[in-house]
Design goal:
Number of helices: 3
Strand content: under 5%
CATH topology: Helix Hairpins
Number of strands: 0
Largest sheet: none
Distance between the termini: 56 Å
Number of domains: 1
Radius of gyration: 17 Å
Structural class: mainly alpha
Helix content: over 70%
CATH class: Mainly Alpha
Amino acid sequence: MVPVNYYIILSAILFTIGALGVLVRRNPLIMFMSIELMLNSANLAMVAFSSAIKSLSGQIFVFFVIAVAAAEVAVGLALIVQIFKSRHTINVDEMNSLKG
């Protein structure tokens, strides 16, 4: 059996990569993928702790987090498509106002 520490270290590495992706990249699609990576790293930590204490509550909570993340991506991608249709660019630096 793999110790919980290894899962937590992997989760911290994935969260750091996701945070750097959000802070460094200016493409909204890459930013969404980085946010999803951070959410999945938190899910990995919850599942690791849940299996360590032998409780299913953390694993059930992960399913709700995944469902909310899927809804968040659907709404975010719809916004990106609409912004691209109106402005013909999806650069984050050029989206400083939401005026029509």
